[in-house]
Amino acid sequence: MQAPSTLSRRSFLAATAALTASAAFGVRAAQEWPAGKTITWVVPYPAGGSTDVLGRAIAQQLDALLSTRVIVDNRPGATGTIGAARVARADADGLTLLGTSIGPQAIAPHVMGKLTYDPVADFAPVIMIGTIPHLLVVGKEQPFKTVAELVAAAKKAPKSLAYASGGTGTILHMQGELLQQKTGARFLHVPYKGDTPALQDTLAGQVQFAFIPAAAALPHVQTGALRALAATSAQRLSALPDVPTMAEAGFDDFVVEQWQAVFAPAATPAPVIDRLNADIGRALQSSALVALAQQLGITLAGGTPQALDQIRKADFDKWGKVIRDAGIKPA
């Protein structure tokens, strides 16, 4: 009866040795990666936006950290899903990355109908770049001084108040839907092709209000062209200490921040993900990135791939429920 036992022990030792060798190879491969090969950083939005500007700055930092060239490839369209699909189809070698936001990964899949990729299964999380709070703003000619006044007017005359968004399925749209569901008020949603025209028409009084990224709204609030009724962050913004949070305005569970993050194709080797996480994390600590983030109104985050994975899954579920409850059908 000794032979089977001996054979099992030999098999176990052989398997252990193989796993150890494989792990050593993985570490060695990650140290050598990317071995001078060009890395493509896909931005699923047009050039010039915050996601693009931030991505280019990080790519520049990675050039030196990884001793290679990192190029930015803008693939805009379909609320960011065209660029996401490009990365989902790429080889899982860590040479194609997606620098994206909450929209294509957690919101658009619920409103875009059948996509060519799975927003969870087809991507390996790398790192959270940062978060962007929003402001609920009205034009200077609007009579509303508080969120409660805005909601009361909408309840009195359903769909008499219009709000702008950067498009159906964007985070700006979703915040309006969330406000409706929490209050029972009914607003008229006016989607635009991007945040900028939505902001412009809010300034011009073509719509009554909008949720706008804080950095974009701040200059207009400071000049008096816009009035900020509340911030969607957990804490008051240091630049606007007199503007309450949505919770302080009487609307609990309304912390909404637009995150920016990096993903790789699913099945990208873990040592490569770890290397990317570490080096992008170093880039986020550079003085140049910190200064740029302040200009863009982004709170830099960092953290582990696992932490990003939890956030994206939670937001995917959260906004999926909001969309279903709103009766929004996939286009």
From TrEMBL:
Residues annotated as signal peptide: 1-29
Keyword field: Signal
SUPFAM superfamilies, sorted: Periplasmic binding protein-like II
Highest rank taxon of the organism: Bacteria
One family name in Pfam for this protein: TctC
Family affiliation: Belongs to the UPF0065 (bug) family.
Protein name: Tripartite tricarboxylate transporter family receptor
Species, as recorded: Achromobacter agilis
